[in-house]
Amino acid sequence: VYQNKKLAGILYVQDKRPALHAFNGPENSFLEQYGGLFIALFVFLMLLATAAWFMNKQVLIPLTALEKTSQLISKQDFNFSLPSSRVTEIHEVSNGFKSMQLQLKKSLAKQQSLENERKLFIASIVHDLRTPIFTIRGYLEIIEKQLHQAPEKVKKYIVTCRNKADMLNHLVSDLFSYTKLEFYKEKPSVEFVNLNRLLDDYLNDYSAILEEKGIHLIKSIPEGDTYVYADPELFFRAFYNIIDNAIRFSFKNSDIYVSLFEEKKYAVIAIRDKGKGLHESELDQIFTPLYRGETSRNRKTGGAGLGLAISKEILEVHGGKITAENHNKQGAVFKLYLPLPNGS
Q: What mean pLDDT do residues 267-277 have?
């Protein structure tokens, strides 16, 4: 209250009428009764929509993708991608499918590689068999026609046929040995043998061949005894392939060095020739079946490209290994490793 424009006091007035008179109707009563229910229903619908979105993205879509993936796998189609999921179980299943994808891709690639190798193997063997057979057949036809006309030529043709027959026999023996080792996994009949004496016996068999070719054999075999467990006949095949390789690629009047020594847990036979050696590009492939290098192993020198592969298989079934390298001066060096008893 103001008097003469000055505040004289304060007057309080209380209105006891209902507030918001406009909402005193049935609408206000409805909101007061069901408003909380509507709010709860709205919150529930929002939660339901969120849960549906989550289930669709994190469960249903990944599961649908996994179903399609399983169908692709059944058709050997491994080019697929899987969505991620925050659900632990779905995530683990998805990771399992991804791991399966990698393994199946590797398996398929390996299978394709083996199939290509099989085709190459068959094609190479067919070629190597046909060549000498064709030659023998041709010379036999000539012999049949000129048997009484040119006996000297006939004799020459017979020698050629015999050489080609020997080549066929060598090829068939290689195939038989490789098949037994690689596919049938033949186990060696090992004996406790004196490697010094065994090596001497092997080398004595080559004295005539070396003399004929004018190649000098230089041996370095210790006087003491080196014992190993080995199959003498099977190991001779491995040794034969390496020494034969050294003889074929040695120059006339050159040397072949054969030494025996121990290295860590192995007895080692090193065979070195003084030929052209191995090309650097073939050092990693020299023991691959049917591989023929540019400078050392080709059809002009004979063989089917199985000899060194067979030697590798033989050494491995004995628990050993074989290596190839070039000597720092001249020629190639092959080393045959056989495990010593008790690794000593």
A: 90
